[in-house]
Structure formats: C-alpha cells, structure tokens
Write a structure and sequence with these properties.
alpha/beta; formyl-coa transferase, domain 3; 2 domains; 3-stranded antiparallel β-sheet; 13 strands; 38% helix
Length: 427
C-alpha cells in the first residue's frame, strides 16, 4: 500500500492557532503518565502543534488518575485537566502489523517534526528508528524510559525494566539523600518530581535536536532515562564520592555545609525557612538575631561543616530556633527581609491561590475543558516570555476529539475511508 510515500507534508500549524516561539513545529506523542505528556505539554504551551495518540475507546489512562473530577456522567482526572490542554486527541490502534495502522502512523511521522514516546516496547509494534528516519530523515525521536534505551549503552535487562516515578527517584539516587537521617527511612517527593524533571530534560533535548535538524536536515534520537534525570540533579553527590570517598547522607531540612539553612517552626505553627550563604548574608542574619558577630563569626559558627557542628555553631542554631518560635511566621519573615536575610514561609496551595503576587504574575488561568464542558482554573506557565508568550488555545480534549480532522486535513483520508477505520476498530 505505502500510501505515506505519496502524501505531501502539510506545514504546521494546520490545526491549531499560530502563537509562541515553537509555532511551525508539529509533535506526535504516544505516551502516558507523566513524563511524555508533560514534555509534550511544555512544547504545546509555546506553540507546537501536538497530536496525542490514544487507544480507541479506552483512551489514555491518565484521564482516570485520581483524584477524578465528576460532573454528572462526565469524569476526568485533575491531572489531565492541567496537563492535556493544547493537545489534539487522535485515537489509533498502533500496531504496524495492521496495514491501515501502519499507513496512518507512518503518514503522521512524515508530517511531524518530533515523535515523543514512553512506551518502551515500540519494536514489538514494528516501530524502529530505521523505519521512521527513512520516512522522515529530519525526525527528532524522543525516547523516555526508566532506565534508557540499549542503543545508548547499558545492560539489556535493565533497559527492559518497567518504571514509575518513585522507582526513578529510588534507583537514580535521589530517594537515598531525601528525608531525615536514620532511623527514619528514605523519602520520595510527594509529587511526580522525577517524571517532571525527565520531561524537562526531554524537552531540552528535543529542542537541541530540532535546531540541528533544521540546520542540517538530519534527524536523530534523544534518549532520556528517569534514573539519569534524577542523578543529574544531585549536585556534587558523585564528585563527593569519586574525589572524597563520601557517600552523601540524608540531613533532613538542615543544610549540611553552612548555616543558617534550616526550617524553623513559628509561634503560629507554621514553618519558616531561613537561608543565608556567605559571610555578608550570614552577618545580616546574626545582626537580625541581635547577636555579636565577633563571637558568632562566620568562620567559627556558620561557614563550614565543622563550624555549624561546633559548640558555638550548635548554640547559634538553637538561638535561631527559639527566636523563630517566639514569632509569627509573617512577622518574622518581614523583619528578616527588611535586613535582606533570605527566608520563606512554607505555603499551601490555598495560600498560593490567594497570593496577590501569584495573581499579579498571571500564574492562574481559566480555560474551557472539553471533557467536563465547563471553564476550569489551573496553573499557568513557566517560563514567561516577553515577545512570544505561552498560551492555552484549548483545554484538554475528549477521547478522539480530533481524529477525523487530523486524518482528513493532514493525511487526506475521505469520510468513507475514516468510517471503515472506525468499523474495524483501528481508530
């Protein structure tokens, strides 16, 4: 059949408005909770035309992730409302052994600049990089997995392992250093921080590969492993081990190498974090507490591991603890900030939603969710850009909402052909 060879590529955007710095980029995404969808969301918020392939009828399981918002017979995940906006939903049974599926998928690949996947088992579906780059030599292929693709090295059995966010946190080294010392167990981040970091590394890799492809006409694969994304953000952990023989340990909320760098409980049962790195800021902190800087000098009580664990250093931490405990969080914060001592109150989502600063920064936006069929409010964008800002042109789509339009507009299928696909359960 090989219909894909005959079709002409339709430039993007053909199905979404023109906006943002990535307008003209078209992204095909086959993935679910959470890294691949978030990666595609980042690209879509800044202008890329994103096509999300979902399985017919079942859809993406991300739609059902708790907590679920219910409105009569309508139900959808809160996470889906936040992360699936700006996407086109196309249902397709991806299996290149099915001739019609092969034609549709390869035709989409020909029409796209980027393919993002986190399915791991793509070869079992007949999808290989060799085939895709023959169809579209400029294609950027982004693989997102727990342990990486074997073509980039590693042990095959490790590359084949299934993974979820906390597994990446554990196996990538983050969980071991997060939390309080023994006998407390290691702790994982409450949100899917590993997935989100993995997604951001993937988006960064995609953009670099995309620029290269536009310059040279040469596509390539980008391999992002959850464990490596986690290890990459561990700062000097590995240098400590390789050069000093130290295994980084959990320290709770207290910074291990300087003070103040700790979380303190306030009089009104809130928590205030105070951080003051370097002699100048440290001096302002000591002054704020009404202490003698000659006695509690940076060298003696704040500027090193030895200093903060000395008798004087421990005394300073106790004084700070008692000082904060005697004050309400907001008053302590305002006083410290008046002396240019960095600090911050641990905020709840309710507090941030009411924050005048967040509101004036435009951090919360409203848009129409296609599944609930109502306006919803969610977090907006990061980063902010002066000339090519992000936008939400549409809320999260219903399952297969754009299937007919995509097949007709981009791939040239007729209504009768599309109807046959539906009868066969291909879309």
């Amino acid at each position: 059949m090989e219909r894909w060879k005959e079709i002409e590529r339709i430039p993007a955007p053909a199905l979404v408005p023109t906006y943002g710095p990535l307008t003209g980029m078209r992204v095909l995404m086959t993935g679910s909770i959470v890294a691949a969808p978030f990666c595609a969301s980042l690209l879509g918020e800044y202008g890329a035309e994103v096509i999300h392939i979902e399985r017919p009828k079942a859809g993406d399981p991300y739609r059902e992730q708790a907590p679920v918002i219910k409105r009569g017979d309508k139900r959808v995940s809160a996470g889906w409302i936040q992360e699936a906006r700006n996407k086109l939903s196309l249902t397709l049974e991806i299996n290149l052994k099915i001739p019609e599926s092969r034609e549709i998928f390869l035709s989409l690949i020909k029409n796209c600049d980027v393919w993002v996947e986190n399915m791991v088992w793509t070869e079992k579906l007949g999808i290989t990089e060799k085939i895709l780059l023959e169809v579209n030599p400029k294609l950027v292929i982004a693989h997102i997995s727990g342990f990486g693709r074997p073509q980039f090295g590693g042990i095959l059995s490790e590359c084949d392992r299934p993974s979820y966010d906390p597994i990446g946190q554990a196996e990538g080294g983050y969980m071991f250093v997060n939390g309080f010392p023994e006998p407390s167990p290691p702790s994982h981040a409450a949100t899917f921080i590993n997935d989100y970091l993995t997604a951001m590394f993937a988006a960064n890799g995609i953009l670099m590969a995309y620029i290269h492809a536009q310059k040279t006409g040469q596509g390539q694969a980008v391999d992002v492993a959850q464990i490596e994304a986690m290890s990459k953000v561990l700062n000097d952990t590995f240098v400590q081990y390789f050069l000093l023989g130290r295994i980084r340990e959990r320290k709770g909320n207290k910074v291990a190498i300087f003070q103040p760098g700790n979380l303190f409980k306030t009089k009104d049962n809130k928590y205030l974090y105070i951080g003051a790195y370097g002699p100048a800021v440290y001096g302002r902190f000591v002054k704020a507490l009404g202490l003698d800087l000659n006695k509690y000098s940076h060298e003696a009580a704040g500027g090193s591991v030895e200093a903060i664990n000395s008798e004087l250093g421990l005394e300073l931490n106790q004084i700070a603890t008692e000082w904060v405990a005697a004050r309400d969080a907001e008053k302590a914060k305002e006083y410290l900030l008046s002396l240019k001592v960095p600090c911050g109150i641990v905020r709840t989502s309710a507090e941030l939603a009411a924050s005048e600063h967040y509101q004036k920064r435009g951090n919360f936006i409203q848009y129409f969710d296609e599944t609930l069929e109502e306006n919803v409010k969610a977090f907006g964008f990061c980063p902010k850009m002066s000339e090519t800002p992000a936008q939400v042109w549409r809320g999260a789509p219903k399952i297969g909402q754009d299937t007919d339009k995509i097949l007709h507009t981009l791939l040239g299928y007729s209504e009768s052909e599309i109807a046959v696909f539906k009868e066969k359960g291909i879309i």
